Amino acid sequence: MIDLYYWTTPNGHKITLFLEESGIPYRIIPVHIGKGEQFQPEFLAIAPNNRIPAIVDHAPADGGAPISLFESGAILQYLAEKSGQFLPADVRGRAEVSQWLFWQMGGLGPMAGQNHHFVQYAPEKIQYAIDRYVNETNRLYGVLNRRLAGRDFIAGDAYSIADMAAYPWIVPHEKQGQKLADFPHLARWFAAIEARPATRRAYARAAEINAAPTVDEDAKRVLFGQTAAKTA
């Protein structure tokens, strides 16, 4: 059994996508980040960076004590290795998946996240910042579009954790100022993943937990006012 500490963000969706695809038993423990639940001591013991998602695996492969893990990319790798799914065993296939997983973690996610912040949430509209992150998001969409030319999935013919990592960050493309019609290979890939039964189940779980996502002023204070000295 996997305990998944989760909220309905792109990084959270990565893990429900994997768990729904793999069939590993899991239970969701909601962590409402807009209410500051990520700063509770019991959560920080698992995720010291006070970010979701995090997991606790109560049945690790070595048969020992439960393993806790934070960082969505690390969790995807761990679950893929645990289950033997969505990460090739051969060295070349594994390298292909890994480099695109880290591309998402180091590029697409952070840049799209800054896009979301300055376009949707910043208290003042700073045009330079908006242009910077909307344009960089556009560049990264172009990278992914070119990669998907002639391939069903990011790492080749097989669906992998690289696809699961990237897809949730493409879901809010309209809010990011992007048009999928400008990226035909990406649009084809996106539609294929959207249609997967496990994807539909994962996003249905999200709707059950957070039916009407909103970020009010109190939530903005919690989410965007953090320093080393002030974390709630």
UniProtKB/TrEMBL annotation:
InterPro entries: Glutathione-S-Trfase_C-like, Glutathione-S-Trfase_C_sf, Glutathione_S-Trfase, Glutathione_S-Trfase_N, GST_C, Thioredoxin-like_sf. Residues 90-222 form the GST C-terminal domain. Residues 1-87 form the GST N-terminal domain. PROSITE patterns: GST_CTER (PS50405), GST_NTER (PS50404). Coiled coil: none annotated. SUPFAM superfamilies: GST C-terminal domain-like, Thioredoxin-like. It holds the Pfam family GST_C. Belongs to the GST superfamily. This is Glutathione binding-like protein. It comes from Janthinobacterium fluminis.
